[in-house]
Amino acid sequence: MFIGAQVSLYPMSSRFVDVITSSLQALDPHRPDLRIETDDISTLMVGAPGPLLDGIRDLFTAAARQPEHVTMHVTLSRGCPGEPDDPSCRCDTLSEAQSLPLDERIRRAGQAVAASPGTGVPIDVQFSLYVLGQDRHMDEIYGCIEFLKRSGTFFRSKNFCTRLRGDAGAVFEAVRQAFLRFGPAEGHVTIDLTASANSPSLA
Amino acid sequence: MFIGAQVSLYPMSSRFVDVITSSLQALDPHRPDLRIETDDISTLMVGAPGPLLDGIRDLFTAAARQPEHVTMHVTLSRGCPGEPDDPSCRCDTLSEAQSLPLDERIRRAGQAVAASPGTGVPIDVQFSLYVLGQDRHMDEIYGCIEFLKRSGTFFRSKNFCTRLRGDAGAVFEAVRQAFLRFGPAEGHVTIDLTASANSPSLA
After folding, report:
1. Nearest Cβ partner of B8 from A40, A133, A194?
2. SUPFAM superfamilies annotated for this entry (chains A, B) (predicted)?
């Protein structure tokens, strides 16, 4: 299994380098558990979904605590057949998810969101879950949307994606649950996610 | 068939509203052919791949002609089973693609990139093509990567995505060809794309 993300932070500010550099400090506690590589477009993070999503959440929360409008784009991927197996990406939630019916996965995903720690930082997210390489991929996607609607973070449906709104702790836990509990455990699943905070045109 | 995109423009500048507003004028010639709806996170564009990708290219090129570092995120989708059929999204290239073997599709995609008009604006792009709801989805993805490597816009492979570099005209034509000629004509295909220009940390 290979699990990771390409992450880009976009502060809508002329001091964007400062905002990015200072926010990156929030990744420090997670660095021992993640492989991190940066180029001029994005930062690759590889690791288990625990530190991976915690790191992404903490990075964006740190940026959103600054006054500027900031957005983040994340491409999450697990099980891509083109990537090498990586023992650091082992994840018990994934194996467990495979053995459970959809209803039970929806229930456990909701419990995880309810138990997530708050950050005090309100954010908006929109994302798409893609289940590749199997028939009936929409069943898993519709199951995931059902979970999101009950999760307390659902804001509305849009073409091609779902919008979440709430505390960054609950919202990123909802994303992690969507990523882990829907689509086969050994399958190829990706997420295309945009996060936004401090927008001057908040709907 | 329903074809469209969620598009977000991110100028890394405190005058980001001005950059976005002025760049949006580049969409004007394409507005009669597209359905366009904006909220605080992204702009939905629905229409055939001709005006759709031309509009996205012209929007980003207009922003990249300004001095600020600017990025754009695009979620492209065609054939999503959850979306309604829309006659305005009709596309002959798609129907033609279905009847041709992979080698011939790679050849025609390359011809289209070679024939694309230049803009004089150099850009970087990274993107992932997702073919959903069928077995052997990686064959189409590997075929697409083979096309990209021969397209004159290939820069390098990364985890989860491929980087392109070159004139905005050729790069967005390569993206359009990837979107149209790989994956089944009636299938569910998506692209997760990030574009970047004027980056101070250009690799």
Report:
1. A194
2. MTH1187/YkoF-like (SSF89957)
In angstroms, what CA-CA distances link A36 with A4, A58, A201, B121, B203? Answer: 10, 15, 33, 31, 17
Residue of B nearest to A136 (CA): B133
3-state class of A41 per DSSP? Answer: coil
Report domain extents, chain B. Answer: 3-197
CB contact under 8 A, A192 and B194: no
Q: Tell me how far apart the terminal alpha carbons of chain B are, to the nearest angstrom.
A: 39
> CATH top-level class for B3-197?
alpha beta
Contacts of B171 in chain A (CB under 8 A): none
Chain B residue closest in CA terms to A41: B196
Distance separating alpha carbons of residues A155 and A141, to the nearest angstrom: 17
- Asked whether the CA dihedral B161, A13, B22, B62 is positive or negative, the reply is negative
How does pLDDT run across A154-198, given as a tens digit for each residue?
Answer: 999 999 999 999 999 999 999 999 999 998 888 889 999 999 999
Task: Please list the alpha-helical segments (H only) found in chain A.
Answer: 16-24, 49-64, 92-98, 102-114, 137-150, 168-181
Tell me the nearest-neighbour CA distance from B39 into chain A, angstroms.
7
Quote the CA–CA distance of B160 and A44 in Å, as a whole number: 9
Answer whether A54's CB lies under 8 Å from A30's CB. Answer: yes
Buried/exposed code over B27-64 (b: 16+ C-beta within 10 A; e: otherwise):
beebeeebebeebebbbbbbbbbebbbbbbbbbbbbbb
ipTM for the predicted complex: 0.93
Give per-residue pLDDT as tens, B9-44. 999 999 999 999 999 999 999 999 999 999 999 999
